[in-house]
Write a structure and sequence with these properties.
Structural class: alpha+beta
Number of strands: 4
Strand content: 25-35%
Distance between the termini: 8 Å
Oligomer: single chain
Radius of gyration: 12 Å
Strand order of the largest sheet: 2-3-1-4
Length: 89
């Protein structure tokens, strides 16, 4: 599923589930920095890495985080992930 964004992003931000594949993701995105967000429920389920800390916090605002958590719950899976790059999510 690709969603067009209203803003062109200059960085790449990735949200992925915390699970056995986490070491694979950490290796894949080793040049990205870890983003710590202030939402404990989100942080317990997902990891976030980005090439720009500020832009990552812009796209992962509290309203989006709540919607993302709701979507993951509705989907009924632990394996929801998202990528933000250019004009795409």
């Amino acid at each position: 599923l690709t969603i067009k964004l209203g803003k062109n992003l200059g960085s790449h931000t990735v949200v992925y589930p915390r699970n056995r594949m986490e070491s694979f993701y950490r290796t894949l995105f080793s040049k990205y920095e870890r983003i710590n967000l202030v939402t404990p429920k989100f942080e317990s389920r997902f990891s976030t890495v980005s090439t720009d800390q500020v832009e990552a916090r812009y796209v992962l605002d509290p309203a989006f985080i709540e919607c993302f958590l709701d979507a993951a719950d509705i989907a009924g899976t632990k394996f929801v992930q998202a990528s933000f790059k250019d004009r795409d999510m």
